[in-house]
Specification:
- The complex is a heterodimer of chains A (158) and B (285).
- In chain A, helix 2 crosses helix 5.
- The radius of gyration of chain A is 15 Å and the shape is globular.
- In chain A, a hairpin with a 2-residue loop joins strand 3 and strand 4.
- Chain A is an alpha+beta fold and 158 residues long.
- Helices cover 35% and strands 16% of the residues of chain A.
- Chain B has 285 residues and is an alpha+beta fold.
- Chain B folds into two domains: 159 residues, Uridine Diphospho-n-acetylenolpyruvylglucosamine Reductase, domain 3; 105 residues, 2-Layer Sandwich (Enolase-like, domain 1).
- In chain B, the strands form four sheets. A five-stranded antiparallel sheet of chain B has the order 4-5-10-6-7. In chain B, strands 11-12-13-14 form a four-stranded antiparallel sheet, sandwiched between helices. Chain B has a three-stranded parallel sheet with strand order 1-3-2, with helices on one face.
- In chain B, a hairpin with a 2-residue loop joins strand 4 and strand 5.
- Classes of the chains: A alpha+beta (158), B alpha+beta (285).
- Chains A and B meet through strand 4 of A and helix 2 and helix 4 of B.
Chain lengths: 158, 285
Amino acid sequence: MEKHDIKLTINGKVYDVSVEPRRTLVDVIRDQCGQTGTHSGCEHGVCGACTVLLDGDPVRSCLMFGVQANGKEIRTVEGLAEGKNLHPLQQAFTDNHALQCGYCTPGFLMLAAGVLEKNPDISDEELVDALSSNLCRCTGYANIITAVKAAAEQMRAG
Amino acid sequence: MKPASFNYHSPSTLEEAITLLARFAEDDGRILAGGQSLTPTMAFRLARPGHLIDINNIEDIKAVLVKKDKLVIGAGVRHAKFHEPVCDGPLGLLLSRVVENIAHLPIRLRGTFCGSLAHADPASEWCAVAATLDAKLIAKSTSGEREIEAQDFFETVMTTALKENEMLVEVHLPLLPTNTKFGFEEFSRRAGDFALTMALVVWEENGGKIKNARIGLGGVEDRPRRILAAEEILNNAVPSDEVFRKAAEIAADNVDPIEDHATPANYRRDLVKALTRRACEQASM
């Protein structure tokens, strides 16, 4: 099958890669761009571990082919911190024990980042609904919700 | 869990997409819209299309337009577009009410209205809306365009009247009169999961009585459909708990539910009864 030469921008850095169409975006990000912070979980759109921001929208990167992201701006968990300063969401996850095994964490962080950037004043009810998108097999949902609320407050305060 | 190989095409016009589809239809060429159902199907290798024709880069199919008495939804319109009403009046509100139940936010940001219909999962909310409101589906191929009634479009589980070389390019929904009332209820085991049953109830209220009632069910049988016998109970009746219960009972009596390892037919039948009644109550408020 014919490979396609594509250009992905991941966290501001441009990657020129040649991809087989069948490779999903998460596989291209991890295997061809070497950005392994994004986790690949169920590979069929159920768990959300692979959530990244595509032109600002949280999407499941296992439900897209890499070739479809040609020319798009992608943000992954590696792009959250600024140098040694954790993003408010990362800090809040640490402070509130919102990660246990950590497998779902990159997906939850990118989901929450996408949601809060679009809607900083999100209601608790809407936030719980948005966070229901992803699965945490350690069942740490209560702390994840607490952490995202704490980060939202901090992000609003600036 | 990795899709099989395929050739990828990314046309920038609808004409180009339809020409590609005609060319590759025999090699199981498929349209790739939002990909939120097709991609997992490919990951499980239940689908192994030889060619995917990606329509995400076609700009002029991404609009929702009001044309005379109908709402025209293009093939590129994503679920999230309906979070806010897309038109004035009851139809815009109805679609916003229903969209909340479709999977999760990241799925709604990618998946498309027309893609849901073409995929024809019995548990699809938009399929239930299309069947309940008697949508008209516009299929296009290199040999022309045809209009398919929703009731003829859904044949069985993930099987539609679309031919291999036809693309679903638009869906037309009738705008609803201002005196329209509606209720939508669905049940799933966890938030955003596939619905086991959903009920959409729509009627016009005239002089305190129910007119033009529509009761559509999804997720129950192999395809969504209106339950005419239950609608008859509502028509010309004054809304009341008794009438709603009767209609719900008749609806439950008139379905032939699908079964799975965790859900016997009677479970879905009970859900039909409960959700139809609740959707009627919601409509009456």
